[in-house]
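Bench notes, afternoon.
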Amino acid sequence: MEVTPVFPSNSEDDDRLPCGAGVDDLLTQVAEHAPPRDPAHQRSCPHCRAALAELADLWAPVTELAAEDVRAPAGLLQEVMTQIRELSRNAWHAVLTDPTGQTRIAARVVGAVARLAAESVPHVSVALGNGRPETGAGQSPSPTEIAGAAGEPATDVGIAGSHVVIDVQIAVDYGVPIIRVAQEVRNRITEHLVAHTGLITSEVNVIVVDVLASPPTET
């Protein structure tokens, strides 16, 4: 997925997400409980929302110590900031670290797991194409030809560290309870991501973009 930055960069050394948002701005938002620089962008951007979830986890030890009358362990803040700086360097990969090494999982892999999980729910098709195609009278478009009105991809993935945000567009069969099916899609994606990647799903947002009519029965 190609992302056009919406925040101009003031320096080549700026730590920025694929959308152009500055990691420092997001850290300030988390550390100081400050309002977002661009609330509308942040509400719709999976990259920002995943980064905020990861930053909240990374900054938690500092917040806990700030509430206590104790001296922070030597190097704690430096260690936290080092992890924060890594976010922009791994903007298209989830990063899981353990004592024996590091595992990086590409965003496209996370997206593939999410799509397959959604498609495993009965009466659900994942939208994959660009725009809504023209169809003949009484015909429904193929699920592979449905996506957002602006041609956006049907599965957006935001990744930061071990946190992931998924926005997925689906089509459902006519006659099924949409709310219940959407919740099942959300649960299935969360379960599959934990089982197959070990990632933390901060959000799974399901957008129902079409209803597919049952094919006419032959008489």
